[in-house]
Specification:
Layout (H helix, E strand, L loop, with lengths): L10 H7 L1 H9 L18 H5 L3 E6 L1 H18 L3 E5 H4 L10 E7 L5 H12 L3 E6 L5 H5 L2 E4 L12 H20 L5 H23 L1 H10 L5 E6 L3 H16 L2 E6 L16 E5 L9 H14 L3 E7 L11 E5 L8 H18 L18
Parallel strand pairs: 1-2, 1-3, 3-4, 4-5, 6-7, 6-8, 8-9, 9-10
Helix pairs in contact: 2-8, 2-9, 4-8, 4-11, 8-9, 9-13, 10-13, 11-13
Bound molecules: 2-deoxy-2-amino glucitol-6-phosphate (AGP).
Length: about 375
């Protein structure tokens, strides 16, 4: 069993460390010699993809957070509206679907019953269905019109890690491919983004190499009853993912929310010593997002919070207001989730281990949820 875990104590640790390869393998072989994206494997007529008027992403749990990240990128690159909906909510609300709607399901296992039922429902309503899936030949891709596999390799730990990064990577490839087909980005822009995506595995490795700092904090925080996570833009789903990891394996009350929502309620939760993780946007990003999040850090700190920030290397603005800073290497703002998620995974994994819990098989949970 030790060999299966690649020398790590748990599958989750191993899978966190598999992430550079998961991203690399998901990118592999999907461009031609001239640098153009080729996704022939999709089995969907490019003409049909050109005519899509709306995308609806369906998924649950961590996969749904990958979908939320994808929405920011795909709408920005392709200029097609993207909705993200939890599979189990979708078919009970009479959604608007027609034959120009593309359903993109995201599922690691390909067997999640809620997502399968939602895909079936959408198909019946005439939508095109595309599965982004990590499990070859599983039910959801078999029942979909098209499939784009993530190549994260088998994920054993109940808490999803490498599948999440692979899902973001694959949905970015889909977005770039649609942008290429529809002429929404210049070829040079697509090539630049792809080149930066190819640099991500090495940068994830850098984050992994700095893991001791995160594990040390996790050990120190093992007795905390509640942890909050804030993020904005693509950092918002990352914050929710950080909270979900802590709930599912460390059984700690955790909540992730959009930093802009603070003043609309959650700031009332902050009192002396409350740990707050903040996923800080890139200082090179859009408008004044970075400055706004920095002022959120100040606001919670002024009310006694213990602030832990995940920020881009070289971001000096957060230092004065953070108890602890975890730096991740610089990349394009939209690619940041592929890096900022990693410290949060390491944190949850180390904290659960510190509490003596079964990290790979948390209580009450199954790896794939095959019941509705
Ligand atoms: C993730 O850590 C969870 N165990 C869970 O939320 C999972 O992502 C969800 O059940 C969806 O599974 P799927 O990707 O296999 O469809």
């Amino acid at each position: 069993a030790a060999a299966e875990k690649g020398g790590f104590g748990t599958f989750m640790e191993k899978e966190i460390h598999d992430q550079p390869k998961a991203v690399e393998d998901t990118l592999l072989g999907r461009t031609d010699a001239s640098g153009r994206l080729v996704l022939d494997e999709l089995r969907i007529d490019p003409e049909e993809l050109k005519g899509i008027s709306k995308i609806i992403v369906l998924a649950c749990g961590t996969s749904a957070y990958a979908g939320m990240v994808a929405k920011y990128a795909i709408e920005h690159w392709v200029r097609v509206p993207v909705e993200v909906e939890l599979s189990h909510e979708f078919r009970y609300r009479d959604p608007i679907i027609d034959d120009s709607t593309l359903i993109v399901s995201l599922s690691q296992s390909g067997e999640t019953m809620d997502t399968l039922m939602a895909v079936r429902y959408a198909k019946e309503q005439g939508a095109r269905t595309l599965a982004i899936c990590n499990t070859n030949g599983s039910t959801i891709p078999r029942e979909s019109d098209a499939v784009l596999y993530t190549h994260a390799g088998p994920e054993i730990a109940v808490a999803s890690t490498k599948a999440f990064l692979a899902q973001i990577t694959a949905s970015y490839l889909l977005g770039l491919y649609m942008a290429q087909l529809r002429g929404k980005l210049f070829q040079g822009e697509i090539e630049d983004i792809l080149a930066d995506l190819h640099k991500i595995p090495g940068k994830i490795q850098e984050v992994l190499d700095g893991g001791d700092q995160i594990r040390e904090l996790a050990r120190e925080m093992a007795q905390e009853p509640s942890v909050l996570f804030l993020g904005r833009h693509v950092g918002y789903p990352v914050a929710m993912e950080g909270a979900l990891k802590l709930k599912e394996i460390a059984y700690i009350h955790a909540e992730g929310f959009a930093a802009g929502e603070l003043k609309h309620g959650p700031i009332a939760l902050i009192d002396q010593g409350q740990p707050v993780f903040v996923v800080v946007p890139s200082p090179h990003g859009r408008d004044s997002l970075h400055a706004k999040v920095v002022s959120n850090i100040q606001e919670v700190r002024a009310r006694g919070a213990r602030t832990i920030t995940v920020a881009e290397a070289g971001d000096g603005d957060v230092v004065d207001y953070s108890e602890t800073v975890f730096y991740v290497p610089e990349t394009q703002p939209l690619l940041m989730p592929l890096l900022t998620t990693v410290p949060l995974q390491i944190f949850a994994c180390a904290l659960a281990a510190e509490k003596g819990y079964d990290v790979d098989q948390p209580r009450n949970l199954a790896k794939s949820v095959t019941v509705e």
